[in-house]
Design goal:
Blueprint (H helix, E strand, L loop, with lengths): L1 H10 L5 H11 L4 H10 L3 H14 L5 H7 L5 H11 L7 H12 L3 H15 L1 H12 L4 H14 L4 H11 L6 H12 L6 H5 L8 H14 L5 H4 L8 E4 L6 E3 H15 L15
Antiparallel strand pairs: 1-2
């Protein structure tokens, strides 16, 4: 018991956590009750997160009641640590539904996000996908933008996800902060249906939206974009700049890159070869 307490004390200290974590996981079930007691006595967010992580790695179902209680704590960081750990206990039939409820309704957005990931671990990737799609329709601008940022990378080429992003992009009230992420995600989707959703943004009064649309159409590689892009080659509006003082790009610069990308994707050995365009 003294050795367990020493390991738990080491677990909540950054400098000694890794070795203590490995040792406690190796101890297994006998460490669960002391870890639960330590969680409730630990004053630091870091300590609680490490203890919850060790409980998840041990995987003993005796930890589940405590984790469920902590997931409803009044302290956001306590809830967050418990929610992450509960993702390892999907075999408990109540855990996935509890995590879904937290993902939908927790008052702290960060807790909602970790609950989506935990739901995926507990109930499978499709369960997490459904929650990300719900988040695309959330009234919060932060929620929609975060979902747009994450969903295309988590589910590349998924037709259901692509359809959800296109539907969000067509919403008249779609948050401005989400537009760029949605357009970029659809540009990487390889879904030909995305052309109709993206193309109208080439006419946006916002230069960055025009640039995002041009960049996405270039990645999509749809030759229908060429006649829409050509008139924008001399658009001098600011698009963006590279990090750390890198070069700045105008909308016209992005358009030329997009046209070049479409040109490169033409297939000369196609039975119906696409036309190749002279860009400059």
């Amino acid at each position: 018991m003294a050795d367990l307490q020493r390991l738990i004390q080491q677990l909540v200290v950054p400098e000694t956590r890794q070795q203590a974590y490995t040792a406690l996981v190796a101890v297994g079930a006998p460490a669960v009750e002391p870890l639960i007691a330590a969680f409730e006595a630990t004053p630091t967010d870091f300590g609680q997160s490490q203890i919850a992580s060790a409980l998840a790695a041990i995987g003993d179902d005796c930890a589940v009641p405590a984790l469920k209680a902590w997931a409803r704590s009044s302290q956001p960081k306590t809830r967050q640590s418990a929610v992450i750990a509960l993702g390892a206990f999907g075999r408990d039939s109540q855990v996935p539904e509890m995590l879904r409820d937290i993902a939908r309704h927790d008052p702290e957005f960060e807790v909602r996000l970790v609950a989506i990931g935990a739901t995926g671990r507990a109930a499978g990737k499709e369960a997490a996908k459904a929650l990300w799609i719900e988040l695309l329709n959330d009234p919060s601008e932060q929620a929609v933008a975060t979902a747009a940022l994450n969903i295309s990378g988590a589910f590349p080429g998924d037709p259901v996800v692509n359809e959800a992003m296109m539907a969000t992009l067509r919403r008249p009230d779609v948050p401005r902060a989400a537009l760029g992420w949605l357009i970029m995600g659809l540009g990487k989707s390889g879904d030909s249906r995305a052309f109709e959703a993206i193309a109208p943004f080439l006419r946006s009064a916002d230069g960055q939206q025009r640039a995002h649309a041009a960049d996405a159409l270039g990645k999509l590689g749809d030759p229908r974009a060429v006649e829409l892009l050509m008139p924008l080659r001399d658009d001098r509006a600011y698009a963006w700049e590279e990090d750390h003082g890198g070069p700045k790009y105008s909308v016209g610069d992005v358009v030329k890159q997009a046209l070049d990308a479409i040109n490169r994707q033409a297939k000369p050995d196609d039975p119906k070869p696409r036309r190749r365009w002279k860009l400059f």
